Amino acid sequence: RGKRVVLYFYPKDDTSGCTTQACGFRDRYPEIMEKNAVVLGVSPDGVASHQKFKSKYELPFTLLVDSEHAIAEAYGAWGEKSMYGKKYMGVIRSHFVIDEQGKLIDVQYKISPKNSPTKALTILA
Q1: Which of 24, 84, 94, 95 is least enclosed by beta carbons within 10 angstroms?
Q2: Is the pLDDT of residue 47 over 90?
Q3: How sure is the predictor about 83, in pLDDT bands with cuts at 50, 70 and 90?
Q4: pLDDT at 52 > cutoff 90
Q5: Alpha-carbon torsion 113, 117, 38, 72, what sign?
Q6: Catalytic pick from 6, 18, 40, 42?
Q7: Domain span at 83
Q8: Quick check: 9 and 75 in contact, CB under 8 A?
């Protein structure tokens, strides 16, 4: 509380779309901080994977481990997906903007990795 939060969910560290989204938040992070906000990324990857991903791309924000997908489920960001005709359960790329009082002010499911940081910043403006 006291700061706004951009909470974003992504499927896997160091993959194409996830890197695009993370680096977009990295590049816009000074603007996001000017809006009294922080960014938290969430994926099922472990601590070592997150540390490597953060270091490789110089990510200035926290990445949370959600190996049991409890956080993703609580936000509706875990569900059925399909790839090459196969259905499976996984992280639904999404982001949530939360105000200083903890109230959800924006929800974006299945958002493009490229558009996610800009859209979140627009809501924070």
Answers
A1: 84
A2: yes
A3: confident
A4: yes
A5: negative
A6: 18
A7: 4-124
A8: yes
* Cα 91 from chain centroid (whole Å): 10
Domain count across the chain: 1
pLDDT on residue 2? 87
46 pLDDT higher than 90: yes
- The 3 state secondary structure assigned to the chain is CCCEEEEEECCCCCCHHHHHHHHHHHHHHHHHHHCCEEEEEEECCCHHHHHHHHHHHCCCCEEEECCCCHHHHHCCCEEEEEECCEEEEEECCEEEEECCCCCEEEEEECCCCCCHHHHHHHHHC
Tokens of 102: 């903890």
Give the domain CATH number at 43.
3.40.30.10
Which residue bears the tokens 């990295």?
26
State yes or no: is 18 an active-site residue. Answer: yes
